[in-house]
Design goal:
heterodimer; A: alpha+beta; two-stranded antiparallel ribbon; 5 helices; 32% helix; B: alpha+beta; 2 helices; elongated
Chain lengths: 136, 88
């Protein structure tokens, strides 16, 4: 979706410090470039979706600048996070998921433990997350 | 100009400056306060979605730039976590 702090709008000092400097994309190709830069830089392996230039997903979910949702198996909104940045709380989502579906286990972390065996995926654990910009 | 209007304009300007000073304090600097008002506030919407509503569908582009998928295609078997944000 729309960049929050592009160089040609409200760029912050942290953008310079972290070397995250992009102009507001005017085309889908530019958005795609930023999205790919993000996933490469952070080795982001979770499925990723880019919103089109009409910002349809952003508008439908009132998502700008950042927001978290959980959609349950019936296709309904089960959790709606607060508006970022101040009310954007991944820990709250994790706690919510743990309370509803049980503690989330990461198979790769389990296997790193001495003598540990890979944990089976927890049924109903968080599935794919489509990130727009972080989902661009 | 009648005295009443002078006072009214003066109070209005004072309130404007006070709001800007407050925003500058909150945002960190006058430049950030301007940025917040000019670029952020027009795009921040509380929205009407609530827990229990049907999740809106939207068509997204995959990172390869060629394939598309719908949000609703990823629902059904497991809960889906949507993380909305931008790189900057």
């Amino acid at each position: 979706m729309r960049e929050a702090h592009p160089t040609d709008e409200w760029q912050m000092k942290s953008n310079l410090k972290d070397d995250v400097c992009y102009a507001q994309p005017k085309t889908l190709a530019q958005r795609l470039t930023i999205a790919n830069d993000f996933t490469r830089r952070f080795k982001y392996t979770v499925p990723f979706g880019v919103d089109d230039m009409s910002n349809a997903a952003e508008a439908a979910y009132s998502a700008w600048p950042e927001r978290l949702y959980v959609i349950d198996e019936t296709g309904r909104i089960a959790y709606r996070g607060g508006m970022g940045p101040f009310h954007y709380d991944p820990k709250e989502v994790r706690a919510w998921l743990s309370a509803k579906y049980g503690e989330v286990k990461h198979p790769e972390k389990e296997s790193e433990k001495p003598g540990g065996t890979p944990a089976a995926p927890v049924p109903g654990a968080a599935g794919t997350s489509a990130r727009a910009d972080k989902k661009s | 100009m009648p005295l009443f209007w002078k006072w009214a304009i003066g109070i209005f300007l004072f309130l404007l400056v006070a709001v800007f000073v407050g925003l500058s304090y909150m945002a960190g600097s006058p430049r950030d306060a301007y940025g917040m008002v000019r670029y952020a506030l027009p795009h921040m919407h509380k929205g009407t979605l609530k827990v229990g509503d049907d999740a809106p569908d939207a068509r997204l582009l995959a990172l390869d730039g060629e394939n598309h998928f719908h949000i609703r295609e990823r629902t059904g078997k497991k809960p889906l976590v949507l993380v909305f944000g931008s790189f900057t």
